[in-house]
Specification:
single chain, alpha/beta, eight-stranded parallel beta sheet, 15 helices
């Protein structure tokens, strides 16, 4: 019996179970990749290159600009941080010119601000950008190295590896991270390399070894990219939605709000749909240069509290009609969230519906508009609703039974990192109750 077959048999009895108490709600934070990519030119572009300065600057912004208190706690390094060679002991090491203080010192800087550090490695011979990968024989030493540096989160990519190596490597890295004794969140890119869907992906097993996983292609800075991701997740929701829950999350990739490719309406749409999907809220933008509209969307306390709902149930697309899509997610305390997304490109659209049409039980409800701050009261399940949805925009409602309206503030504040908010008793915006 060859060594590969022996390892495969060993996996059958491998009990990894990453039940270390982490990520009972989707992780929140910031990651370098989409915005800063593999910019290693610190001579001519010192503000934007992948260096310890960029991550210190971002940690300062998270700590000082209200992000940390809302739950954005991870500062995650992506590809291109490494030296092209391992050290004399076979360990990964940072590029000495761009990270002169080393990763352990950077981790202390981030921890001193009440934040957590994430790092990137790749299950294969090389990372996606050609830096040293983590082959099967290097998994244990790399896990130990990350733990010794004080790393709190590992994104484990899969370039330059084959399906057999991935089948071995992702569980083995989970086991190796557990063995370090340091609780580390574990993000696996395994599914995207094998098609993202059953039967190639065993989501039950994946949920036992990883906290979150990339299912689909990388997000780009465009509305087309966001729409493509939403469409793929919605079309495959019967396979994907049951896989998610506390400690195990589908990851549609980073929030690109605040960059160059989205309008304000499209940015709200991404925030709303990522909230529906119980997705990680991992921003990739320049927090040093963020406009007020992007900040308001990303710091929306109601959207964050909904995303972080303790039940951790991923939402679903309910219907499509007239290029309008309706999404629904159940929440704690008999509440729910509805998102009405316009795929139209012509003009604002007057959409007609009722809660009964969306399969709500008979009764009286109240609804809070997440982005306008208005509240709709005395809403019966059969009440006809008409409201305007901007092209590529959303209307996002938090819906709750009327008799529970006095409990809503408690509900939203279950996410203890979000500060308290009050419902504004204002007239609805773009809404007519007929």
């Amino acid at each position: 019996m060859g060594p590969l077959v022996t390892q495969l048999f060993g996996l059958i009895s491998l009990t990894v179970a990453l039940d270390n108490g982490l990520l009972k709600t989707p992780p929140m934070g910031w990651m370098a990749w989409e915005r800063f990519r593999c910019d290693t030119d610190c001579k001519d572009d010192p503000e934007n290159c992948i260096s310890e300065a960029l991550f210190r600057d971002t940690a300062d912004r998270l700590a000082e600009d209200g992000w940390k208190e809302l739950g954005y706690e991870y500062v995650i390094i992506d590809d291109c941080w490494m030296s092209l060679l391992r050290d004399e002991h076979g360990r990964l090491q940072p590029d000495p010119s761009r990270f002169p203080g080393g990763i352990a010192k950077l981790a202390r800087y981030i921890h001193d601000r009440g934040l957590k550090l994430g790092i990137y490695a790749d299950m294969g011979t090389h990372t996606c950008m050609g830096f040293p990968g983590t082959t099967l024989d290097k998994i244990e030493i790399d896990a130990q190295t990350f733990a010794s540096w004080g790393v709190d989160y590992l994104k484990f990519d899969g370039c330059s590896s084959n399906p057999v190596e991935q089948m071995l490597g992702y569980p083995l890295m989970s086991k190796a991270l557990n063995a370090t004794g340091r609780p580390m969140a574990y993000s696996c890119s395994w599914p995207v390399y094998i098609g993202g869907l059953p039967p190639n992906v065993n989501y039950s097993f994946l949920g036992d070894i990883c906290h979150l996983w990339r299912n689909y292609y990388d997000i780009q800075d465009s509305w087309d990219s966001v729409q493509g991701i939403i469409e793929w997740f919605s079309n495959n929701q019967d396979d994907l939605q049951p896989a998610a829950g506390p400690g195990r999350w589908n990851d549609p990739d980073m929030l690109i709000i605040g960059n160059f490719g989205l309008s304000v309406d499209q940015a709200r749409s991404q925030m709303a749909l990522w909230t529906i999907m119980a997705a990680p809220l991992i921003m990739s933008n320049d927090l040093r240069n963020l406009d007020n509209s992007a900040r308001a969307i990303l710091q929306n306390k109601v959207a964050i509290a909904i995303n972080q709902d303790s039940m951790g149930i991923q939402g679903r697309r309910l219907l499509q009609e007239n290029h309008i899509e309706v999404y629904w997610r159940p929440l704690s305390h008999s509440a729910s969230v509805l998102v009405f997304l316009s795929r139209r490109t012509d003009m604002p659209y007057l959409y007609h519906t009722s809660l009964a049409k969306l399969e709500y039980d008979a009764g009286n409800y109240e609804a809070y508009d997440v982005f306008t701050g208005s509240t709709v009261t005395e809403l019966n399940a059969t009440t006809e609703l008409t409201f305007s949805i901007n092209p590529s925009g959303v209307v996002m409602w938090y819906v709750y039974p009327e008799q529970q309206s006095k409990q809503t503030e408690t509900l939203h504040n279950q996410h203890n990192k979000a500060s308290q908010f009050a419902f504004h008793k204002a007239k609805p915006v773009h809404l007519t109750v007929l």
